[in-house]
From TrEMBL:
Source organism phylogeny: Archaea, Methanobacteriati, Methanobacteriota, Thermococci, Thermococcales
Residues that coordinate or bind Zn(2+) 1: 61, 63, 137, 207
Catalytic reactions on record: Endonucleolytic cleavage of RNA, removing extra 3' nucleotides from tRNA precursor, generating 3' termini of tRNAs. A 3'-hydroxy group is left at the tRNA terminus and a 5'-phosphoryl group is left at the trailer molecule
Source organism per UniProt: Thermococcus aggregans
Entry function: Zinc phosphodiesterase, which displays some tRNA 3'-processing endonuclease activity. Probably involved in tRNA maturation, by removing a 3'-trailer from precursor tRNA.
Protein name per Swiss-Prot or TrEMBL: Ribonuclease Z
Length: 306
């Protein structure tokens, strides 16, 4: 089960209703952060997620609303004597910015910080991959994909019987080895299991104008968290952001299952934004508030931690 916790859903600057961007992915005991806007430490504490569980932080770009919460997070980890290394990923200039950032103040981290500067990359971890892709925001900026590995299908009793076998301890052995020999006959795992299950795919755009790379990387995603800072083009003006309609259009074309409208400009109230989004967007979408949790299994379920 994968949980997406929306710690900060607003954009540009916080207002009384919502904080700036941070999204936590909880997966198999690990916490991954997508962006770490100012105040993320407090948001984590309200969401009852220990900063000590955060192993990887992916920054989309170096505008303050997406990374200024990093320092307080690292200072707190140090106060709590963290020893486990922390990995920070980001676009071009990440080395330089993080190095300068960490040089300020009277403290040194108690643990190793590994900084990874990325272009478009495919990072492989135990049961998932993270892909980075370039987006268009006037400064070096990346979007990220979480892609869970596809899982093997479950054991199929009919197939087992057809091969003249009975369920037993050999199934465990077959699971580890992939193939085994029974009564002189080689059995492969695929011979006795059903269709593989597709791993969950979640995409986070960070800040961007509508762009082709987002569409390409979001192809048939389960969830697309697309920035939709503005309700209309007039409000957007010359800024490198997207409108609700544009995010909707990309979700439609990429055939994503669920669109998450994110990074809302502080000028809109939740009700006003929701009313307009319902009028404008024909695709299935949600507008999360801070501390909403999206649980993704066979289906998805949205609830609030508050
Ligand atoms: Zn932003
Ligand atoms: Zn930005």
């Amino acid at each position: 089960m994968l949980e997406v916790i929306f710690l900060g859903t607003g954009g540009i600057m916080p207002n009384k209703e919502r904080n700036v961007p941070a999204v936590a992915l909880k997966y198999e005991g690990e916490v991954i952060l997508w962006d770490v806007g100012e105040g993320t430490l407090r948001q984590l504490s309200i969401a009852k997620i220990s900063p000590m569980k955060v192993e990887k932080i992916f920054i989309t770009h170096f505008h303050g609303d997406h990374y200024l919460g990093l320092m307080s997070l690292i200072q707190t980890m140090t106060l709590w004597n963290r020893e486990k290394p922390l990995h920070i990923y980001g676009p071009k200039y990440t080395f330089e910015f993080i190095q300068n950032y960490l040089k300020s103040g009277f403290f040194r981290p108690s643990f190793e910080i590994h900084v990874h500067e990325l272009g478009e990359a495919r990072l492989k971890f135990k049961n998932y991959e993270i892909w980075s892709f370039k987006v268009e925001h006037g400064v070096p900026a990346l979007g990220y994909v979480f892609k869970e590995k596809d899982k093997r299908g479950s054991f199929d009793l009919n197939k087992i019987r057809e091969l003249g076998l009975k369920p037993g301890p050999w199934m465990k052995e077959l699971e580890t080895k992939g193939k085994i020999e029974i009564n002189g006959k080689v059995i492969h795992l695929e011979d006795v299991t059903g269709k593989p299950k597709k791993g969950v795919k979640i995409v986070y755009t960070g800040d961007t104008e509508p762009c082709e790379r987002v569409k390409l990387f979001s192809e048939r995603a389960d969830v697309l968290i697309h920035e939709a800072t503005y309700l209309n083009e007039e409000d957007r003006g010359e800024s490198y952001h997207s409108t609700v309609m544009e995010a909707c259009d990309i979700a439609e074309k990429a055939k994503v299952k669920l669109l998450v409208l994110f990074h809302r400009a502080p000028r809109y109230t939740y009700e006003e934004y929701k009313r307009e989004a319902e009028r404008l967007c024909g695709h299935k979408f949600i507008i999360p508030r801070d501390f909403d949790v999206l649980r993704i299994g066979e289906e998805y379920e949205l609830s609030s931690l508050r």
